[in-house]
Every structure is written in C-alpha cells, then in structure tokens.
Amino acid sequence: MASAMRGKTGQQQRRQFLKTALACSSAFALSGCLGSSLGSLPGDQVQPTAQPQTTGEVIGTGSVRVGLLLPLAASGGNASIGTVFKNAAALALQNFPNADVQLLVKDTGGTAEGGRSAAQSAISEGAELILGPVFAPAVSGAAAAARATGVPVIAFSTDTSVAARGVYLLSFLPESDVKRIIGYANSQQKRSYAALIPDGSYGAVVEAAFRQEVGKGAGRIATIQRYKMSGSDTSDLVAKTAALKSVTNNIDALFVPAGGGVPPLVMQTLVSQGANLGNIKILGSGQWDSAQVKNNSVLAGAWFAGPEDKGFQGFARRYQSTYGATPPRNASLVYDGVTLAAGLIRSAGPQRFQQSIMTNRDGFIGIDGLFRFKSNGLNERGLAVYQITGRGTEVISPAPRDFRTGF
C-alpha cells in the first residue's frame, strides 16, 4: 500500500484510511468514498488478464473475482439464510454499480466437504477472496482449501474455533458483547454480579468472557447458574432462575446473555418468586436485539450491548423494498463483506487482501459500525449500549467511532 499512498508511513496510511471511511455520510458509501479520496492507484492501471471460465451463478461484472460461499441447498431450513445472504450481496452491488467485483456464488450445503469443494471451485475460477461460509463445518472445509492457495476467507460463523490466520470472522462474536456490556456496567459502579448462562459452547465462551470482564472491574461474582434447554422445555431454566432468589439481596447486576423468550421468562420467574429486584440491573447481549425482547415491558430498564442500528434500519428498508421481506439481523454481515471487498479493491490496489491490509488496526466502518480483524481471525467491534423502554430501545452509551478512544 505504501506506493499506492504516495510514500506515507504505515501509521499515516491507517489514519487516512479510517479518516476517509469516517468522512462518508453513510456506511453504504464505504467502497466508493475510499477509492475516490485516495486518487489514482497502481491497481487501477492493471489490465485484467484472461480468467478461467466461471460455472454457476455470478453476481456483478467487475474484474476482481470473489467467492461467495453460502448454504443454498442445506438441510433443516438452513437454505433460507443462504438465499437471504445472496440477496444482501446482490443488494450491495446494486448500491455500488461501479464496484470492480464479480461474485462467484457457490453452494456449500452447510457441510465441511461442501465448503471445501465450493472454495476449491471458486479459487480455480480466479477468486482472490472468499466471503462465507456461514456455518462452522463449512468454514473449516473452505479454510482448508483456501489455506493451501493463500486465499483469505471472511466467514460469517459465530464459532470462534474456526477463526485462524487468514480466516477472519465478520460475525457478531459473544466476547465483544460481554466486554461491552460488563465494561459499561463496571463504569456505572456495578460490583456484584450473578449470571444465568446456557450450557453448551456458546455458554462456555460467554462465561469465560464474563469472568474476565468482571475481574477487570474489580467486581465479584456471587453465583453463575448454568441451565439446559431442550426444545420448548424451560423447566431447568425456571429452576435455576428461582435459585437466584437467595442472592438477589447481595447483587446489583444479573447477566442473562440468551435472547428470545429467555429474558422475559427469567424476569417473570423472579417476580413470581418475590425476588428483590429494586437494586438489580438486568444485563443482556446482542441476542436481545429482537422485537420480542425490546418491546417487552417486563424488561424495561434493562441494558444490552449491540451494534449500531441506524445503518441496519436503512439496509432493511432497501432489502424490504427490493425483495418484499424483512431481513434477519445478521443479513448485514454479507452486505458489509461485499462492501469491504469493493472498498479494498479500489483503495489498496494489488495488495488489497494481504494480511497487513485486512488487519488494519484502525479498522473499517460498515452498516453495523466500527470493526477490525485481529491476526488470529477474530474481530473487535465498536458496540453501543441500549436501554429497553418496553416500546423499543434508547442508546445510553453510543458506539465508539474509532479504536483509539477505548471502550
């Protein structure tokens, strides 16, 4: 990038990159404004050479090929998320008609072998970057194929075990939620915590992060109750919630990371048990970002961490207008992935997908706000803290606009 940036130092490059992104009036302008502000770059002058013939669906007509690996024929209803993600990718290119990107759509079937085969197919057809897959097994398969050729992967799985050097997760990771909400609670003088955490891999990750962040704030953990959920059977959750009554006089924060029907049920159970909730702040995660939780009056006053929602609201309106349906919250991931690829193609020239560019410590701005990739493949996000009103939410701590301010 040094030659493309006319001799600027690495630190100056990073600052200019982020400054340019922040200057955009909308996250949707990322790819366009990054390129236009940096002037003519060496990569702009490279004439595309003859490329292999593509097979399957292609979105876009640019000269730089990017594999888009999705579960389009997966079992168990998972194909629907593949279709939604493909629609979001197409919408990204519709909003940036001059993006020099050609997306090679490949079906993973949601499996490891499917991910490996899809990645091999995309790479053999000239893909310089892989976007996706969505599910962890397919990410593992795709990563194995991509690693052998040095092609980086930006995946959408929340399973951090599949992250690695060159395999970056763009998804919303539970560690970021915990860091933000517990960090904010610490800043508001919350010192004694309890938690209700689901059994399983998600719960294990959340618990480890919870213990770390409470410790950073010199707080104490009165109890952690782990519950099992089996389909609609909430008996263990109810029992573990009831067990919290004995500590409610000794805590000032209760962390309930699971979303859906869990937070309302927890509150209803505590109230029915006569628990003293007057001095307790209920804390949640990004899984609370749903109408079911945000519009529930029993949770009014509770806090949770999540990405900025203004960008997503604009994206959702565009998606609804184009496809006649409301997109799920994580549909913005693939939109940001395509936009990021387009921005790097335009701003970084031939070095566009090198690790030093992908792990730019100043990060990038997308629909969901500030994010950056770490060298181990995980990400960090600038999240906001919301308070539930019972009729939606209000921001009580805005998302940071850069990583230097700390959060």
TrEMBL record:
It comes from the Bacteria. Pfam families: Peripla_BP_6 (PF13458). CDD domains: PBP1_YraM_LppC_lipoprotein-like. Gene3D superfamilies: 3.40.50.2300. Coiled coil: none annotated. Residues 63-389 form the Leucine-binding protein domain. Keywords: Amino-acid transport, Lipoprotein, Signal, Transport. GO terms for biological process: amino acid transport. InterPro entries: BCAA_transport, Leu-bd, Peripla_BP_I. Belongs to the leucine-binding protein family. PANTHER family: LEUCINE-SPECIFIC-BINDING PROTEIN, PERIPLASMIC BINDING PROTEIN OF ABC TRANSPORTER FOR NATURAL AMINO ACIDS. This is Putative lipoprotein. It comes from Roseibium album. The lineage of its organism: Bacteria, Pseudomonadati, Pseudomonadota, Alphaproteobacteria, Hyphomicrobiales.
